[in-house]
């Protein structure tokens, strides 16, 4: 009897998969998240590409081509940082996290499912954005080592965004204030990190500020994947700065992880 019970007990992997299914279903049922994560970035890509897409910012590189990797990077940040922080804050306010914490589900399985959900959604989002770029603006897919660069930049960027999103969720006093706090942060980073504007045309002091945060490096890493090698000379310092990109993103992964572990709470701030 004991052996049968032990063998039928759920494993960590099975609980993580079950929780991932729940996370994906909740995401698909949320119209606000679907619009924000999928349709809004695609709309911006089509809008900016249609209005400014034909303008050349360097020989053989149009604004639409430059805008695509920035939107890919921004999409990763939005999914892992902004959307995740807001969804966790809402779950905390509604005591969903409190109830989950009272179940046999291990915390590590819960967070693993959250991370997996972000990765799945980010992959779908990137595929959609790149498809629009290829079909409408003649964007070029990476080849050879470009795919390896894309992989490590994507994974490090997703890890940094996700850990920072979990950490930020605990810093929000309540979900209602979340949008007012997080949205200005994301917009500031988008305008100063080479997403909506060409990075080298931004005032130098803002470049230095943006270089502290992960989005600038995530966007630059994606430009190295989707733009021709000739554009490297037009970047700051005339280089893609891959080693610096890996170092800065790794530092932010560690910072986000430490903050998430030290600050995460399962209950509301006013719940004693």
From TrEMBL:
Recorded superkingdom: Bacteria
Domain ABC transmembrane type-2 per the UniProt entry, residue ranges: 32-267
One Pfam family named in its UniProt record: ABC2_membrane
Compartments it resides in: Cell membrane; Membrane
Family matches, as InterPro entries: ABC2_TM (IPR013525), ABC2_TM_bact-type (IPR047817), ABC_2_transport (IPR000412), Nod_factor_ABC_transporter (IPR051784)
Keywords in alphabetical order: Antibiotic resistance, Cell membrane, Membrane, Transmembrane, Transmembrane helix, Transport
Topology of this chain in the membrane: Multi-pass membrane protein
TM region(s), chain numbering: 34-54, 66-90, 111-135, 147-168, 180-199, 240-261
Family stated for the protein in its record: Belongs to the ABC-2 integral membrane protein family.
Protein name per the record: Transport permease protein
